[in-house]
Amino acid sequence: MSVFVSGATGFIAQHIVDQLLEQDYKVIASARTEAKANELSKNFNNPNLTTVVTGDMSKLDAFDPAFKQYGSQIKYVIHAASPVTFEVENTERDILIPAVNGTKGILESIKKYAANTVERIVMTSSVAAISTFSESLDPKAFANEDSWNTYTWESAQVSPIDAYFGSKKFAEEYFWEFLEKNKDTLNIKASTVMPVFVFGPQMFDSSVKSKLNVSSEVINKLIHTPVDGKISPSLAKFIHVKDVAKAHVLAMQKDELIGKRLLLSEANYNSQDILNYLNNDFPVLKGKIPVGEPDQTAEGKPSKDITYDNSKSRELLGFKFRSLKQAVDDTAAQVLKHEGRI
Ligand code: NDP
């Protein structure tokens, strides 16, 4: 039996696919376009990987052909596809609708074509689902695995970042409600994974481009800031991409994780923490990027933005998350190698 992974061309999903193949699962991976599906097949070069093309998942039947063809083989679904972009013309059309319709669509396709075969489903939600954007910056704010943000469809359209936060809430809310409403016909056990900023290497060196996916770009930008340049401010929490992938795989395997929302966060970071690791661990960057103020770090200090309590998720998952140093070093080593600088 196979695992269906949606949005498999994404930064996080490629690591999920890798860990699944590593554990000898057969994987059916969806891509938006034929070209991206072909690139994924070429990069993994693994007979246990099959790719399918969905087109834009704003179309509610985007997943129908895939489930019609492979539904009888699919036991697990990992739904990772969602727009992660803030450069949009229309927040409703480009962020909210694809996120929600993608979730509606995949659930309806399962119901139509794989109701008797799918047993477990894991959805990639986000910490964005549990607070508003402004709360996420507020040192007095607090959230945990039970929290939900308060966006309405209208208030989420104010800016792309609000739309992203809203999209994750609306899609995840729909997910739990659909499974609850259909529990008599669908016997599917579900979990969601809610990561903070995800750092770490691209799955394949060939995916390194001058601009990376939204979260990896935080580190990439600092690697390319000139020594006298302005340091882009960033203050949040991070988690390593390999730990995010591992949590998805465990969520489809471990019964203790059924029905849980898993909040993945290792520690606070700011731009200075990243600069310190870049300057200390990569001699090639010394004198090329800013030093900043090395003692103005966030790691290991009380939070200056929202506080998350993810103690329940850590205990349930039962593995130690990778450090910020490892996440920064893994990302930078890949970028610098790609540029021929190390
Ligand atoms: P990526 O942008 O790398 O991956 C997103 C994936 O979704 C891609 O495969 C993309 O396809 C697909 N997708 C987006 N919009 C559509 C659409 N309209 N139709 C079909 N496919 C679409 O982002 P990440 O890997 O970072 O994110 C993956 C998941 O993790 C998302 O659900 C995101 O919300 C969540 N997440 C990410 C965090 C992070 O810091 N990176 C933090 C918390 C949650 P294509 O390649 O064609 O664009």
TrEMBL record:
One of its GO terms (molecular function) is oxidoreductase activity, acting on the CH-OH group of donors, NAD or NADP as acceptor. SUPFAM superfamilies: NAD(P)-binding Rossmann-fold domains. InterPro entries: Epimerase_deHydtase, NAD(P)-bd_dom_sf, NAD(P)_dehydrat-like. Gene3D superfamilies: NAD(P)-binding Rossmann-like Domain (3.40.50.720). It holds the Pfam family Epimerase. Keywords: Oxidoreductase. Belongs to the NAD(P)-dependent epimerase/dehydratase family. Dihydroflavonol-4-reductase subfamily. PANTHER family: NAD DEPENDENT EPIMERASE/DEHYDRATASE, NADPH-DEPENDENT METHYLGLYOXAL REDUCTASE GRE2. This is Similar to Saccharomyces cerevisiae YOL151W GRE2 3-methylbutanal reductase and NADPH-dependent methylglyoxal reductase (D-lactaldehyde dehydrogenase). It comes from Maudiozyma barnettii. The lineage of its organism: Eukaryota, Fungi, Dikarya, Ascomycota, Saccharomycotina.
